[in-house]
Write a structure and sequence with these properties.
With 276 residues, the protein is mostly helical. It has one domain (3-275): Tetracycline Repressor, domain 2. It is built from 15 helices and no strands. The protein has helices spanning 3-10, 12-30, 37-60, 62-68, 75-78, 83-102, 106-126, 132-141, 144-151, 159-179, 181-186, 192-196, 198-222, 227-248, 255-275. Helix 3 (37-60) runs parallel beside helix 7 (106-126). The mean pLDDT is 91.
Length: 276
C-alpha cells in the first residue's frame, strides 16, 4: 500500500477539516482556545471514524467510481491500494474511533457508534434512496462541531454549528450526486438527479444553498454569537450565493469546492463569534 494511495483513500484533507471541526466545537463550548485532553481524544476519534467511513465508501463505490472519477482520484480503482489494505483501514479506523470516544465518556461512545453505523450503511443502503442519502451524509459530515462540544459536556453549544454545517453539506451532497449521475445510474442507484432529472436537482441544491444564507444570520444571532462571527462569515455567505447562482445557471463545476471552502471559513467565524 502506498502512503499516497492511503491518504487519498481516507481523504486526508477532509479528515483534517473534520478534526478541526471537532476542535472548533470544543472551543465554542469553552468560549476560548485550548486543548483539554477530552477534546483531543474526541478529535482523534472523529478523525479515525472519518477515515473508516471514507475508506468504506470507496470500497462500496468502486463500480460507480470507474465511470465518475479519473483513476488518480480514487486509489482503489486505480490500483494504488489493495482491497485488503482498505478493509484494514476501515477496521482500524472503527476501533480507534470508538476507543478514543470511550476515553471521553459513555455519551461520546454512543455518538461515535451512531455515526459509524450511518457511515457503514450509507453507500450500500442509504445512498440509493433519493434525498435520504443526502440528508444522512449531511448530518454526519456536519457532526464534528457538536461532537467536540459533547466531549466537553456542553452539547447545546454545538447545535447551531451542527445545523449550519449540515445545511451546507446537504447542498454539496446534491451537487456531488449531479456530478456522479452517470456512474450512479449505471449501478442502479436512484439518487435525486436520476429520479427528478439533472436540472431540477441543481435547482434544489441552489434552493438549499440560498436558504442557508438567512439561516446563517438568524441562528447565530439567536445563539448570541458576537460581531466577529458576522464579519468573518460574510465572505462564506457570498461564496454560497455565488455557488447557488452557478447552479441556477446550470453550472456544477467547482461548486462543490466553493461550498467546502465556505464551510472552513464558517467554522472560523463560529469560533471567533464565541471566543473574540
Amino acid at each position: 500500500m502506498s502512503v499516497r494511495g492511503g491518504l487519498r483513500l481516507v481523504r486526508a484533507t477532509n479528515l483534517l477539516i473534520a478534526a478541526g471541526g471537532v476542535l472548533a466545537g470544543g472551543w465554542i463550548a469553552l468560549r476560548g482556545i485550548g486543548l483539554p485532553k477530552l477534546l483531543c481524544f474526541a478529535a482523534i476519534s472523529g478523525l479515525a471514524l472519518g477515515a473508516a467511513g471514507n475508506a468504506w465508501n470507496d470500497i462500496c463505490d468502486q463500480g460507480a467510481d470507474r465511470l465518475n472519477r479519473t483513476p488518480d482520484l480514487r486509489p482503489l480503482t486505480a490500483g494504488q491500494i489493495r482491497r485488503g489494505s482498505a478493509d484494514l483501514i476501515v477496521f482500524l479506523g472503527a476501533v480507534i474511533g470508538v476507543g478514543a470516544a470511550a476515553l471521553v465518556s459513555g455519551r461520546q461512545v454512543i455518538a461515535a457508534l451512531a455515526a459509524l453505523a450511518v457511515m457503514l450503511a450509507y453507500s450500500p443502503l442509504i445512498k440509493p434512496r433519493p434525498v435520504a442519502g443526502n440528508v444522512a451524509v449531511a448530518l454526519i459530515a456536519g457532526l464534528p462541531p457538536f461532537y467536540g462540544a459533547l466531549a466537553l459536556g456542553v452539547p447545546a453549544a454545538g447545535v447551531v454549528p451542527w445545523v449550519l454545517a449540515a445545511w451546507l453539506h446537504l447542498a454539496r451532497e446534491i451537487v456531488k450526486d449531479v456530478e456522479d449521475e452517470a456512474g450512479d445510474r449505471a449501478i442502479g442507484r436512484r439518487t435525486l438527479p436520476i429520479v427528478v432529472g439533472r436540472r431540477p436537482a441543481q435547482v434544489v441544491a441552489a434552493g438549499v444553498a440560498l436558504l442557508f444564507v438567512p439561516a446563517s444570520l438568524l441562528l447565530p444571532r439567536l445563539a448570541a454569537y458576537g460581531g466577529a462571527y458576522f464579519l468573518i462569515a460574510l465572505p462564506a455567505q457570498m461564496a454560497v450565493l455565488i455557488a447557488a447562482t452557478w447552479l441556477i445557471l446550470g453550472r456544477v463545476e467547482r461548486v462543490s469546492t466553493l461550498l467546502k471552502a465556505s464551510m472552513v471559513v464558517g467554522l472560523v467565524a463560529l469560533v471567533a463569534g464565541k471566543v473574540a
